[in-house]
Amino acid sequence: MLSHKIDQNTELKLLERHHAEAVFRLVDANRDHLRPWMFWVDDTKTVSDSETFIQKALEGFARGTEIHLGIWVDGEMAGIVGAHTIDPIKSYAEIGYWLGKGFQGRGIMTRAVRALIDDLLGERGLNRVEIRCAASNRRSQAVAERLGFRREGRLKKATPVRGGFEDLLIFGMLAEEWRSGKKDMGR
């Protein structure tokens, strides 16, 4: 998936180097909002840091081991959705996502994640997708739940949050479940 129109106003686009400034501006404007769950926020200090992230993401895309898509709403960068791990041998992907505060509450992330899962479980033919998020991150959990993911586990103090560690929740979806209609949840 290089680009995908979600609706009249929303599009996913494969992150490219020329998107680095837009990514950095969105991160910079949302530091306090993202910091509780995104440990990398304080390491993103310049546009060059965003360029480095995108370059590594493109290298992973070329290897088929990851994909990172910018979420654009009315031509403005709103967030990122992606698979930071794609393992074709295990037929598995782990996805993550974040959205600028001003874009929340409109179903944008649920639609973006749905499109990514359609690609991973449909087009790429993977067997399983996981979403992992901090136990306190209710918004990330809600996206997984709206899309019919089942909570499969809890890893104690396994993710860095607010200078400490917090439990990590694991949500899973199998291709057969996705095809059987669970993907219609959250529409």
From TrEMBL:
GO MF annotation: an example: protein-N-terminal-alanine acetyltransferase activity
Keywords in alphabetical order: Transferase
Gene3D superfamilies attached to this UniProt entry: 3.40.630.30
Domain called N-acetyltransferase: residue spans: 24-176
Annotated TM spans: none
GO cellular component, as recorded: cytoplasm
Keyword check for Transferase: yes
Pfam families listed in its UniProt record: Acetyltransf_3
Protein name: Ribosomal-protein-serine acetyltransferase
Organism (species): Planifilum fulgidum
